[in-house]
Amino acid sequence: MSLPEWLNFGKWTPFILASYVITAIVLLANIVMSYRSEKRQLREIALKLRRENRGKQ
Amino acid sequence: MWVWFHKLGSPPYFFRFSGIVLPYLAVACLLSLCIGVYWGLFIAPPDYQQSETVRIMYIHVPAAMFSMSIYIVMALAGAVTLIWRIKLAELIAAASAPIGASYTFIALVTGSLWGRTAWGNTYWEWSDPRLMSELVLFFLYLGYIALYYASEDRRGAARAAAVLALVGLVNIPIIHYSVEWWTSLHQGSTTRGTQIAATVHPSMRYPLFIMMLGFALFYAVTLMKNTRSMLLASERNNAWVKEVVSQHESP
Questions:
Q1: Does residue B69 belong to any structural domain of this protein?
Q2: Chain A interface mutation, best of B25, B145, B222, highest count of A Cβ atoms under 10 Å
Q3: Does some domain include residue B16?
Q4: DSSP assignment of B2-37, as one string?
Q5: Residue B15 counted as domain residue
Q6: Is the CB of residue A38 less than 8 Å away from at least one CB of chain B?
Q7: According to the model, what pLDDT value does residue A49 have?
Q8: In terms of residue numbers, what domain contains B68?
Q9: Distant-in-sequence, close-in-space partners of B2: CB < 8 Å, separation ≥ 6
Q10: Fewer beta carbons under 10 A from the terminal one: N or C of chain A?
């Protein structure tokens, strides 16, 4: 499989693309983890509050 | 300004403030990273000596620069933690560590790939002071994260980790000046102060600046998000958190 012309940087293509792909993966992992972590916290606290309210009734 | 800073130290105010600015910062971050990558990969010219491999610079330089800056922020927040015991400073330091570790990892990997093309048949040189001091920085971040999560007592752990961050601060000038103090495979500094205008052509300088902005905004967005979830976890029994959650729950 050959790369499209616009992604061809000669003999250095693997080095350049590897740098950008690794960076993208690391940054994406960071942002996804931080967004999911806040969502999880909100969900857990909401669940705890619901349990507390049911206990009061 | 000072009053606003004091207000920002209050967890509920920080939560509300970050909730307002986060969408704008996220959009600005995405835009600058997309423009920077496109400019760096497809518009900027190849270097007359390094040819196409210079395109690695647009991610390596911002990652390396902010790996050090984030450590300074972490150490300063650690100092505030030790002196004034402000909870938000503890969380900011702890929230910065994984982002700093990621930037350091990116700097090491992209530097290694770039080095392979520039130095010949090697990805890594154990005797090189710049490479080794950057690797030490990576281990300092990992050590900070391990220490912070080692104890159930988060506030005590934050103080212990703050001491480690402050001790490790000595590594920052070593990284920065390593290329001047010792013989190194790594090139000398070209991005310090006004030097960049004289050493980097505008066709390469502008995409580099945009990528630097993108990396800075990415740090701001991830830091705020991490700090918000840590705040929710540590203040879950407080009334303001319950209010936030019930607002979030209601349609």
A1: yes
A2: B222
A3: no
A4: HHHHHHHTSHHHHHHHHHHHHHHHHHHHHHHHHHHH
A5: no
A6: yes
A7: 87
A8: 22-45+54-240
A9: none
A10: N
Residue A51 in this model has a pLDDT that exceeds 80: yes
Q: Which two tokens stand for residue A53?
A: 């309210």
What is the ipTM score, two decimals? Answer: 0.91
B26 occurs within a structural domain: yes
pLDDT for res B59: 96
* Domain residue limits, chain A: 13-56
- Residue A44 contacts residue B242 (beta carbons within 8 Å): no
Q: Which DSSP category does B1 fall into? A: -
Q: What is the pLDDT of residue B183?
A: 79
Q: What is the pLDDT of residue A19?
A: 96
Q: What values do phi and psi take at B47, rounded to 5? A: -80, 150
Residue B51, classed as helix, strand or coil, is strand
Q: Check whether A37 has a pLDDT greater than 90.
A: yes
Q: What is the pLDDT of residue B224?
A: 96
CB pair distance less than 8 Å for B53 and A12: yes
DSSP structure string for B139-206:
HHHHHHHHHHHH-S-HHHHHHHHHHHHHHHTTHHHHHHHHHHHS--SSPPP--STTHHHHHS-HHHHH
B51 phi/psi in degrees, rounded to 5: 50, -135
Nearest to B92 by CA among B244, B226, B237: B226
- Split into its structural domains, chain B has a count of 1
